[in-house]
Design goal:
- By secondary structure, the protein is an alpha/beta fold.
- Helices cover about 35% and strands about 30% of the residues.
- The chain has 2 domains: about 1-235, Rossmann fold (3-Layer(aba) Sandwich); about 240-330, 2-Layer Sandwich (Alpha-Beta Plaits).
- Strands 6-7-8-3-9-10 form a 6-stranded mixed sheet, sandwiched between helices. The chain has a 4-stranded antiparallel sheet with strand order 2-1-4-5. Strands 12-13-11-14 form a 4-stranded antiparallel sheet.
- The longest helix has 18 residues, at about 175-190.
- One of its GO terms (cellular component) is plasma membrane.
Length: about 325
């Protein structure tokens, strides 16, 4: 488990204080995949460095599996860092080393016996699907294969946590999906906790169990995917399930309803049931239905007739587990 409490990081720029992190608190349970999203300058890179104590926080605490890291000795910190595997945007491989030699490097640094290194490297290359590329050099590998080498290298110390900093932003869409599938498979097989720092909402949609939005050094929204997606007033809901631009609205029609729903409801004929039950026309202005992780979600924007019983329709929808926001009439 990762627990961050009231984390604050202030840098000095001349005579000015620059606040990079401002009271960040976060908890990621063991075996979960959590996404940290935000635009450039939100504080994502600073958060990564503070989580690994490469940067000492100005205040606040970072704990991994109950072990608080901000006030430990240098030796204890080195041992704690071995429990955190790091995967970067670029794999940062040694060009002069083969795949197996790149993966072996962290084990060599701590004096692991050669026979143990060989066994561990072979196991990890099989795990990430690169056994046949053990003797290849980075220049002979694709971008996705190089990233797999980076992931294998991050797993050499049998970490409890895999910390991924923009792991797919340099990859094409197909390779991105393959790497994300691998990360999810590793989580399932190894029961490791994964924290993914990203600006790509596709990453969150495909693999994350929960997500936090970082802006201006603060977490402004956080929660499990189902919770944030069905929060009609939240910023993450509109980003994860965006609607196309405003469609033309029927002249003289009634209020606009935004519907957010998930699971079984996402496959139900919601519009036709409202039209039949309340004997009213329903105009669909925009909509999206997407698969997020293992669950299906829907976001619809509807316009009702001017004489429709809005309160009754809203009550009907909410009683069926659908989040509704009334936008008002045009």
């Amino acid at each position: 488990m990762i627990t961050v409490s009231d984390l604050r990081k202030v840098y000095q720029q001349g005579s000015k204080d620059v606040v990079a992190l401002d009271g960040v608190s976060l908890e990621v349970p063991t075996g979960k995949i959590h996404g940290i999203v935000g635009h450039s300058g939100a504080g994502k890179s600073t958060l990564v460095r503070c989580l690994t104590l490469l940067d000492q926080p100005t205040s606040g605490t970072v704990a991994v599996n109950g072990k608080e890291l901000t006030n430990v000795s240098a030796a204890e910190l080195r041992n704690a860092r071995r429990r955190i595997g790091m995967v970067f945007q670029h794999a940062n491989l040694f060009d002069s080393r083969t795949t197996e030699q790149n993966v072996a490097y962290p084990l060599e640094l701590v004096g692991t016996p050669k026979d143990q290194i060989a066994s561990k490297v072979a196991e990890l290359l099989e795990l990430v699907g690169l056994s046949q590329f053990a003797k290849a050099y980075p220049s002979q590998l694709s971008g996705g294969q190089r990233q797999r080498v980076g992931i294998a290298r991050a797993l050499t110390t049998d970490p409890d946590i895999l910390l991924c900093d923009e792991p797919t932003s340099a990859l094409d869409p197909k390779t991105t999906d393959e790497i994300l599938d691998l990360v999810k498979e590793l989580r399932n097989r190894l029961n490791i906790t994964v924290l993914i720092i990203t600006h790509e909402m596709h990453v969150v949609k495909q693999v994350c169990d929960s997500v936090s939005l970082l802006a201006g050094g603060k977490i402004v929204e956080t929660g499990e995917i189902e919770t944030v997606v069905t929060n009609a007033s939240g910023r993450l809901a509109s980003t994860l399930l965006p609607l196309p631009g405003d469609a033309p609205r029927a002249e003289g029609s009634g209020p606009i309803l935004d519907l957010l729903y998930t699971g079984q409801q996402a496959t139900e004929p919601v519009i036709s049931s409202v039209a039949r039950q309340f004997n009213t026309d329903v105009n669909v202005l925009a909509g999206s239905v997407e698969q997020l992780g293992e669950q299906q979600y829907a976001h619809l924007r509807l316009q009702l007739n001017a004489d429709a019983d809005v309160d009754a329709i809203v009550n009907h929808l909410t009683s069926n587990g659908i989040a509704v926001t009334v936008k008002g009439a045009k």
